[in-house]
Amino acid sequence: SYELTQPPSVSVSPGQTATITCSGDKLGDKYVCWYQQRPGHSPVLVIYQDNKRPSGIPERFSGSNSGNTATLIISGTQAMDEADYYCQTWDSNTVVFGGGTKLTVL
Amino acid sequence: EVRLLESGGGLVQPGGSLRVSCEASGFTFRNFVMTWVRQVPGKGLEWISGISGSGETTYYADSVKGRFTFSRDNSKNILFLQMNSLRVEDTAIYYCAKDSDPYGLSWGQGIMVTVSS
Question: B111: closest CA among B90, B88, B89, B93?
Fold first, then answer.
């Protein structure tokens, strides 16, 4: 089965750029989505089709996907961005999630 | 606006059964693949099942195959997840989600299922 790998944790200072990676075999050939999940809440889509933002998602969220790695970039990170982030793709009629990355803003 | 509302969760003993439901609104229900995703509190997201728009085709993760059955009633815009032979490790928050490949998933608020004696 297809697997996506994320770092368990990333730390960033307020106002700096946070980078969260997601790796998988030939991931660049697939579309990747990213979800933000705050404690006690459902996941929220922040990036779809590798690099597109849903309405209402701040411009500081961006994404890329090439080769074996997709990347979520949060520019000018704010305290409110502290959350768990999950990458997701589709493979053989299944939905595949990465293990999640806890973003700490300190 | 997409709205998904799960119901039917609760406490069940190991080996028991439970059916959770998900009422959908705000979109043309029959046109979309729907999924169930679960999350053990404090852990990651796990896809467990998907169903085609017509309901004719279903897909399951190995962890639930043969024990869970996913169905839908397109006349009432509702999903059902029948869970049999439940195990302690099935304890999780269960989310239904609208799958808009490649535009991402839209999520319900989730419902807790606890398997414990």
Answer: B93
